[in-house]
Amino acid sequence: MGKKVICEDLNVGTVKEIIFDLNNWKITHLEVELTREATELCLGFRKGGVRNRLSVSAIGNVGKTIELKVKKGQLKYIYLKPKKTTT
């Protein structure tokens, strides 16, 4: 947690939570606090601090930062998912 997520030349945001599938004991998503630029690209509005879930299938290299192996244009269609809410 706390690592920056990078996609091409875009600073996507910072990891805030890790989401596990307890049935399979696997990490499925990272909850990322998006930057203003990433929020605008993926959600269509300019506001920083928005949290969204990032599928771990998008992760490439992990070091001081988490580098994504996908193009930034793919993020909003495949890899970023809104948080699930319960009613």
Essential attributes:
SH3 type barrels, 87 residues, 7-stranded mixed sheet, 15% helix, mainly beta, globular
For the secondary structure, the number of strands is 7
Q: What is the percentage of strand-forming residues?
A: over 45%
Query: Which bin fits the share of residues in helices?
Result: 10-25%
Structural class by SSE content: mainly beta
Strand order of the largest sheet: 5-6-1-2-3-4-7
Helices, by number, come to 2
Mean pLDDT: 88
Distance between the termini: 28 Å
Rg over CA atoms, rounded to whole Å, is 12 Å
- Structurally, the number of domains stands at 1
Largest beta sheet, briefly? 7 strands, mixed
Detail the poorly predicted runs.
none
Q: Name the shape in a single word.
A: globular
The CATH topology is what? SH3 type barrels
What does this structure look like?
This protein is mainly beta and 87 residues long. The chain has a single domain, classed as SH3 type barrels. Helix content is 15%, strand content 46%. Strands 5-6-1-2-3-4-7 form a 7-stranded mixed β-sheet. The longest helix is centred in the middle third of the chain and has 8 residues. The chain is globular. The mean pLDDT is 88.
